[in-house]
Amino acid sequence: MAPFGTIRTAVAAIVKRHLRGKCSVASAGAMATQIALVLSRIRSGYLVDGLSLQKDDLQTIIRRIRDDYPLEIAAIWETETEQAFFINTVLLNAKMKAGNFPLWVSVATPSQLVPEPCSFRALLSQITLEPGCVSAVTANKPTDMVPLAAWLLDYPVAYVVTDPSIPFLMNTALEVYDCWLDWRDECIPLLKFSVPQSCRVSDLSPTILDTIRSRLLPDVIGKGEPVICQSTIALDRVAL
């Protein structure tokens, strides 16, 4: 596999060329960095944020990336919300085989651990985990995408919404985990999630760090180290 920096440069050229006029150069560069993390098997998935991509956009970007790097990248496009994900099929297939799924947490107050939501497997069955594929999935409710997104993005905890009309985690103390990659004097975001203190989940930092370190191949990333910052917050309502 090519070094991360080389992959990022190539992906940035593809993204900036295809999205010219649709977003700023900085946004395209940040997007390219995250896609390169997926290609390099450092992240299982990346949710495109702040930019609406159509299925055709994903197909074009995936095809052009695979012309240079015929690696295990694919994409998911949710038809109603138009959420777009770039995914690494090798990492996700390995997680499937190992039964590596998040803890399921309710957004009611007080929050607690709950069973896996039925919507998760229904959406998972719509995804083709093969390189080059762009899977179009349709959720019955927008909030049904929340547990799936958590799994795709390597979150060890996934929120489950049973009643979208109630405020989510109102005034609930949350442990927030913010993880990034310290690489060549850059702080590259990897994942950020929260877990309610009422769930009494033990410190997740060691598991997260071990997982990421196991993916940092020296010949791909060189000298890079994951870093986690933990904090406690309480909000009137949490946006999912």
Give an account of the 3D structure:
This protein is of the alpha/beta class. It contains eight helices and nine strands. It has a four-stranded mixed β-sheet with strand order 1-3-2-5. Strands 8-7-9 form a three-stranded antiparallel β-sheet, with helices on one face. Strands 4-6 form a two-stranded parallel sheet. Helix 1 crosses helix 2 and helix 1 packs across helix 3. The radius of gyration is 18 Å and the shape is globular. The mean pLDDT is 92.
Biggest β-sheet: count, sense, barrel? 4 strands, mixed
Residue windows where pLDDT falls under 50 for at least 5 positions: none
- Specify Rg, calculated over alpha carbons: 18 Å
Strand content: 25-35%
The SS-based structural class is: alpha/beta
Placed side by side, the strands forming the largest sheet appear as: 1-3-2-5
Shape type: globular
Global mean pLDDT? 92
How far apart lie the N and C ends?
Answer: 35 Å
Helix content: 25-40%
Count of individual helical segments: 8
Order of helices and strands: HHEHEEHEHEHEEEHHE
Would you spell out the secondary-structure blueprint of this structure?
Elements: H1 4-18, H2 25-39, E1 45-47, H3 55-68, E2 73-78, E3 84-88, H4 89-98, E4 103-106, H5 118-124, E5 134-137, H6 145-152, E6 157-160, E7 172-183, E8 186-196, H7 205-215, H8 218-221, E9 224-235
Parallel strand pairs: 2-5, 4-6
Antiparallel strand pairs: 1-3, 2-3, 7-8, 7-9
